[in-house]
Amino acid sequence: MKKNVAMLALAVMLLGAGSALAAEKAWLDLENCGMCKNLLADMDLFEHMNWSTHVFSAGMIEVTTYPDGYKDRFDKLMASFEACGAKMMAGEQMPMCGMCESYGQLMMSGAKMDQVQTKAGWVTVMTSQDPKVVEMILAHGRRTIDEYAKFTAANGAHDHAH
Ligand SMILES: [Cu+2]
User: Fold this and answer.
1) Which of 75-84, 90-99, 125-134, 151-160 has the lowest mean pLDDT?
2) Contacts of 151 (CB under 8 A, 6+ apart)
3) Separation of 101 CA from ligand 1 center, angstroms?
4) Which pTM does this prediction carry?
5) What pLDDT, in 10s, does the model give residues 49-60?
6) Is the alpha carbon torsion for 155, 61, 46, 93 positive or negative?
7) Residue 28 and residue 36 in contact, taking contact as beta carbons nearer than 8 Å
8) Please, what is the angle between helix 131-155 and helix 98-108, to 10°?
9) pLDDT at 10 over 80
């Protein structure tokens, strides 16, 4: 549930920041996003993790997996997200990529997030009963799928079979 805490914190932060952030920015910006850059702290884990987004009638599903033996490292990553969230809740401002901002907006719009831990990682399901929010979730999911495909094409790595 740690990711929930971080995302909730993100929503709180965005409430403060308002929607003056309309300017188009990179959807995925691992280096400059206060939340995403945690991913780069452990490059070995980053290169071995797999992450995919899927859309369906009621919203989106994100599947994160890591190989055997990486659980401790992954838990550490989750803890760093949580620490980041705590800082935001304490009022610290940090730069966010478009995806993380959008995530916060979804949370603020009342999107429901369920997280299920599996043997090999996490499955996150984001849904809503409100068709308008479902549309927002689908837009977020489709954009993420597109941008991630571009990101993997540009970076080569991270799209390998185990
Ligand atoms: Cu980000």
Assistant:
1) 151-160
2) 28
3) 7
4) 0.78
5) 999 999 999 999
6) positive
7) yes
8) 160
9) no
